[in-house]
Amino acid sequence: MKKIISTPNAPKAVGPYSQAIETNGTLYISGQLPINPETSKFVEGGIKEQTAQCLKNIEAILVDAGYSFDDVVKSVVLLDSINDFAAMNEVYAEFYTSKQPARVAFEVAKLPFGALVEIETVAAK
Fold first, then answer.
1. Is the pLDDT of residue 38 over 90?
2. CATH code at 76?
3. Can you give the residue range of the structural domain that contains 57?
4. Which pLDDT score, from 0 to 100, does residue 60 have?
C-alpha cells in the first residue's frame, strides 16, 4: 500500500509530486531543495547553508514518517557545480555521523530556481 507523506515542517512540493511516499517499509523522499519551510524561500548563503537546509528538510520528512537518518539507505546529491563537492560533503557528514548510506553525487546542468544543491533520499526499516 502506498502512503503519501506530507509535513508542514518541510517545503511544500513545487509541482505535481509528493514530499515522500512510503510503501512496504521503504520511504522515498523527493529531491529537497534548500527552501526554508517557514519562509518558502531559499536560505541565504552558499553551498554549505543550502546543503544544511536540504538535509534539515529531509530530516523533517524522516521524523514525520517515523524514520531517522540511521534508516537512510541511499542518497542522490545533485550539484550545480562539482567544485562544491568538498563543502557539501563536509556538511553532509555532520548529518550522517553513523550508518552512512550509499550515495552518488554529480554535477547537473541546472537545478530548479537556481539552487546550488538538491538531495533525494531513500530510507528503509
1. yes
2. 3.30.1330.40
3. 2-124
4. 98
